[in-house]
Every structure is written in structure tokens, then in C-alpha cells.
Amino acid sequence: MAQHSRESHAWFLLVVGLLAWLVPGGGHFVLKERKRALIIFATIVLTFFIGLYIGSIGVINLFGTAAIYVKAAQIMNPPIVLVLGHHSASGIYPVYCWPSEIGQVYTMTSGLLNLLCIINAVYLAHLRGDELAGD
Amino acid sequence: MSLETALIIATFTTPEKIGTNPQAMLWLLPLAASISVAYKAMKMPTISVSSFLKETVILFGSIVAFVIIAALILYALAWLIV
Fold first, then answer.
1. Closest approach of chain A CAs to the CA of B75, in angstroms?
2. Angle, to 10 degrees, between the axis of helix A97-134 and the axis of helix A2-22?
3. Which residues of B are less than 8 Å from A44 in CB distance?
4. pLDDT tens digits, B24-81
5. Residue A70's CB: how many other CB atoms inside 10 A?
6. CA-CA distances (angstroms) from residue B36 to B47, B48, B67?
7. What does the alpha-carbon distance between residue A63 and residue B6 come to, in Å, rounded to a whole number?
């Protein structure tokens, strides 16, 4: 029984983490933290789109020659980044100098903030699971 | 596709013109604001409008102040060395 409970708890944490990655704030939303979810969603999406506005979708460099830390940070954005990365890999959206730098910083920051939100949502879900088990 | 939609999409397919000048540093401000908002949204135990705004503004001010201090120190070092 305890084994089954642990397994379902692990699955719940996985679902929360996955939702938080798919939609910024999605993890907090399923945990009934609606205000947090809304603020997180608006902030991360806005940061990501400011990055795209400054540097164009050419700053998403998942399949190109960008440094590994750039790819690692950008991949933490919601999956739409994979579609944009696929389009920008064709090389028809060239971007150089400051717009490239600033656009990359913004898109990387939104990805890292999303990672932070995923970890926070999974941690909250873990704490709630422990509270339920203690009741 | 309507003209408005095409224009909106076009803004995301061509980069902005940003010169290498001190004004370009102002792009730091929206980034610091988004970091402050997202961080405080996760960290505060309960979210009420007034306390959330207050905490966010304090964090935003701290980030900007420390960046300015770091810039001044680096500027002074560069002035001493060069």
C-alpha cells in the first residue's frame, strides 16, 4: 500500500513538472496556486517575447553553432522553442551584434526562470504530498 | 492573412536596431523587472497586491543598484589600469 502511494506520488511530481515545462505556471495552476500561476505565466511569456522582438526568432539557436549553455538555457522554455529553433536553423533569420546578444540573454533568462518555476512547482507538490501523508 | 497579423509576425522575424551606446544598457531594466516579479511570485508565502508590489520593487531596486555599483567599480578599475 505504501509502495503504491509512493509510486503515485512520484507520478504526480512528474506530471506537475511536465505541466510546468509545457505551460509556464502550469505546475502551480494544478496545485491551485492560481495567482502565482498567472504572474509566472505572464512574466515568462513576456520575457521570452521581448527577446524574440529584440533579436527576432533567429536568436533561438538550438540546432546551430551556439554555445552549449545557450542551448541548455533556451531549451528550458516551453516546447514552442523547438518549433522556432527548427525554423531559425534554416538560416533565413540572421541576427548579429547587440540584438543577437540581448535577444539571447532575454530568451535564456526566460528559460532559466521557467526551470526555477518547474523546480518550485515540483517542490511544492512534494511538500503537499508529505502533508497529505502526515494527515 | 490580414495586414495586421503579417506586421505582428514581421516584428518577430527582423531584429531591432540597437546601437553600441550607453542607452543600450537600459535593456537591463525590463530583464531585472521580470526576474524580480518571477522570483517574488515563487518566494512569497501568500500573495497580496500591496505586499507583492512592495517586495518586487525592493528587489528590482536592489538588482539595479548592485549593477550600477559593479559598473562603477569596473569603470574605476579600467580608468586606473589603462
1. 20
2. 160
3. 34, 38
4. 889 999 999 999 999 999 999 998 999 999 999 999 999 999 999 999 999 999 999 9
5. 20
6. 14, 16, 14
7. 26
Contact B35 A100 (CB under 8 A): no
Residue with cell 544598457: B25
Number of independent structural domains in chain A: 1
pTM of the predicted structure, to 2 decimals: 0.88
In total, chain A counts a number of residues equal to: 135
Q: ipTM value, please give it.
A: 0.86
A105 vs B contacts (CB less than 8 Å): 31
For A59, which residue in chain B has the nearest alpha carbon? Answer: B15
Contacts of residues B58-64 at CB distance under 8 Å and 24 or more positions apart, as own/partner, are B60/B32, B60/B33, B60/B36, B63/B32, B63/B35, B63/B36, B64/B28, B64/B29, B64/B32
Residues A59, B18: contact at Cβ < 8 Å? no
Residue among B31, B44, B51, B52 with most chain A CBs within 10 A, to mutate: B31
Residue A91 gets the label, from left (phi > 0), alpha (psi -120 to 50) or beta, of left
